[in-house]
Hints:
Blueprint: E1 2-5, H1 12-15, E2 37-43, E3 47-54, E4 60-66, H2 72-82, E5 90-96, H3 99-105, E6 112-117, H4 123-126, E7 153-156, E8 159-160, E9 166-168, H5 172-185, E10 190-193, H6 203-215, E11 220-223, H7 224-227, H8 233-263, E12 269-273, E13 279-281, H9 282-287, H10 295-311, E14 316-321, E15 326-332, E16 335-336, E17 338-339, E18 342-344, E19 349-351, E20 355-356, E21 359-361, E22 367-372, E23 375-382, H11 401-407, H12 425-440, H13 444-465, E24 478-482, H14 486-496, E25 501-504, H15 511-515, E26 521-532, H16 538-558, E27 566-576, E28 583-586, H17 593-608, E29 616-627, E30 650-655, E31 660-668, E32 677-679, E33 682-686, E34 689-693, E35 697-701, E36 707-711
Parallel strand pairs: 2-5, 5-12, 6-7, 6-10, 10-11, 14-24, 24-25, 31-33
Antiparallel strand pairs: 1-26, 2-3, 3-4, 8-9, 12-13, 14-15, 15-16, 15-21, 17-20, 18-19, 22-23, 25-36, 26-29, 27-28, 27-29, 30-31, 32-35, 33-34, 35-36
Helix pairs in contact: 2-8, 3-8, 5-6, 11-12, 11-13, 12-13, 13-14
Amino acid sequence: MTNTATTPSNFIALLRSMRCVDSKRLPREGRETTMTKQLAVDIGGTFVDAIIFDSETGEIHLEKASTTPEDLTEGVIESIDKLDVSIDQAESFVHGTTLGLNAVLEKKGANTGILTNEGFTDVFEMGRYDRPAEDMFKVPYNKPEPLVRGRNRVGVPGRMSAEGDVVEPLDESAVIDASDELVKGNGVESVVVCFLHAYQNADHERRAAELLRERHPDVSVSISSDIVREYREYERISTSVIDGYIKPIFESYVDELDGALGEAGFDGSFYITRSGGGAVQAEDAKSVPVHTLLSGPAGGLIGAAHIGEQLGHSNVIAADVGGTSLDVCVVQDGSPTVRHESALENLNLPVLMPIYDIRTLGAGGGSIAWVDNGLLKVGPESAGADPGPICYGRGGTEPTVTDAALRLGYLDPENFLGGELSVSVNEAYRGIEEEIADPLGMSVLEASRGIFDVTRVGTVTAIRQITVERGLDPRDFAMVAYGGAGPLFLPLVAREMNISEIVIPRSPSVFSAKGMFMTDVVHDFSQTYLEELDHVEIEEIEAEFERLEREATEALADDGFDDTERELDRTAEIRYRGQEHSVEVSLDDVSSKAAISDRFASVHQNRYGHQMDDPVEIVHLRVRGRGMTETPDFGREETAAGGVDLDEDTREAYCFAEGEGVPFQVVDRDSLGSGETLDGPAIVQEPTATLVFYSDQSAVIDELGNIVITTETDR
């Protein structure tokens, strides 16, 4: 059984102040009652975004600081310091970070060992020998070097059957010898314990972990049964290895940040967002850090779903463009799409856990443009925060998307980042000329336009992969665009895809941090079932669901939610016999086997365009328990009265609708009030983001302060 539990989000600390959640800090009744502020910080590849919300006054204050790769804690504390508030008034702190993901992608994790069954030490390296799509037709093909080398994988006697019965007792002396070999002999810092069929019976894994911790208390230990309790040995060991690989690094970072927060006077609850939504206490996140791989983007997806609900859009494309990457995800029927199995890009490593179905491109404001055999390319390498784009004047020499935006006229060199950063215009133009324009025989303007074109094509392809390739028409979706570079770039993408409405929320550059205030409490439970529907009775299925629901209910009750505040959702992974992959089917309000079969057939028809006569097989049963929470009413922030003089300022910039440079209206966002309309081409400026839209687009400011852009289409 998988128990992926999500503890209360940071704002629940205020809403449920009388319901104490375990914390290594003071219990709530022992804290000052004046703690009304909620703090959130999101680390990106280029900037750290910090936001603080006062639930008593409704005031919001946000700041950005440069990411500090050598010491991430430094950037976090700097961003909080810039908020200029007393941190001891914060009831809670929620944090989003991709520290673990970056460690895996860059192969900078801990020296890791695997303890498994004798004779199965090569399962992790053999895998399923799947080739990534980009290497499908390469001859020869060399698999990437595994995260755990062969000499760091040790097998011990002991075996469980697929039903969870002991076939061979665990050899405890062999476990001790293996631990000495790994730790003393090979210097591993983290040991992953993954035995066959531990999803049915975890006794051997738990005993081995106990022996390891007794023998080598300073070594991190990850056991698969604490991470995922589902079948498929390779996927389970891969997920566990990723957890062990990042665990020492993650633990060290959380401890260092926690200490720095404490020194600054913070005495509230510390949470970290999870890849599949929700937040978990920092101490619990240290136990299973694999659940935080996509911690950073999760807040933005929750916020995008919330925006969609406010505007009456149940189907939304959430798109986040930061300084280093672009993340896109589909929100369908009001919820971000969740996958229970995914793969880490570039490593072909499967991850068996709930995770938002996010497509990530190396296409952000700091993505480097380069020429490869006469072809213009953008990313995936990024200039990051240090040295950053050429125009930052910090020693960067390679042109980026931001440098191109400056040449296209979209950015004001006199008011960059609210005037905090002096821009080196001539150096940026020279870099584009030397690295892109001259090698391709074009002008600097043409090269800059080309950089945007290449980035646009890659973004459109990523969005089509999660929409068109799954039978979804992107024209049926609204797009929520956020991140520091989202408003600058995504209206261009919306034009390409005929998306008729694109929403730019307030404070888009820190929207992911803002979304962290909007999460519910979620507990996920699952059980591998593997039975043909015809061979079981509905009462047996019902009994399994009820058992999972009891566990979910108990978990939510422990968090302080009563019957009126809890929701339980039933789903199952189902397939036709003989199929490898299954589809997730909602089984709420289903009371017969015939109804299960009909609902599965309908989902299969919608997904693949056909049904089959083969027997139906249930693979996994899942229950999601949700503790329903109120969300802060960010949309009611004070807006301007309207009536701005739209002819007050203009600047020539490149219009993709006209194919040439034309005058753009330039407006400060703070001057736009509810109901105000603005025809393109126009540039809307705010201190940490710039919105650009074109002559075939227009904008209206809605009553919540969002800028809603519509595009003329032929649809």
